[in-house]
Amino acid sequence: xxxxxxxxxxYELLGFSYEPDAYAWGAKAVPVAGEITTNDExxxxxxxxxxxxxxxxxxxxxxxxxxAGKMRGWHLIYRKNARQTxxxxxxxxxxxxxxxxxxxxxxxxxxxxxQPSTTNDIYHLHSQYLDTINDVRIAWVSxxxxxxxxxxxxxxxxxxxxxxxxxxx
Length: 169
Fold this sequence. Notes:
It is built from 3 helices and 12 strands, in the order αβββββαβββββββα. The chain has helices at residues 2-7, 88-93, 157-167, and strands at 28-36, 41-44, 50-53, 61-66, 74-84, 100-104, 109-111, 113-116, 123-126, 133-136, 138-149, 153-154. The strands form 2 sheets. Strands 1-2-7-6-11-5-4 form a 7-stranded mixed beta barrel. A 3-stranded antiparallel β-sheet has the order 8-9-10, with no helix packed on it. Strand 9 and strand 10 (133-136) form a beta hairpin. It is elongated.
């Protein structure tokens, strides 16, 4: 933090690395993988963007931009490769909050609370302020690891290469 103060840069930007196991104390470079729309639908996109994530985040995390609502400006963080099948255990773990990204058989993905229906393998996706999506089949769920305030965009690998070429370092 002292070096950052001297250089007048945010300390999160010092020592960040695109390598998942580098600098345990530094910011993690978290790729942005899409956005959450006004109705809590997740729209995935291949972007060349990275944001500074906390050092506490586990390996394999990606960020989803929250574009609307009271969490606008934050990133929802989840582990891209930690997809699970729907089970009673997961239903019990979600408590009373939207704790999972829910990918449906029809190809859409939502950030909603999962409610079981009376029929096996059919669920309802509930939101406090939005209409319930009834009678859906879930392909997979992925647990939300946490939320990070969107403080700093990190340079892309291409931008770093250009900077290195321009300075000769």
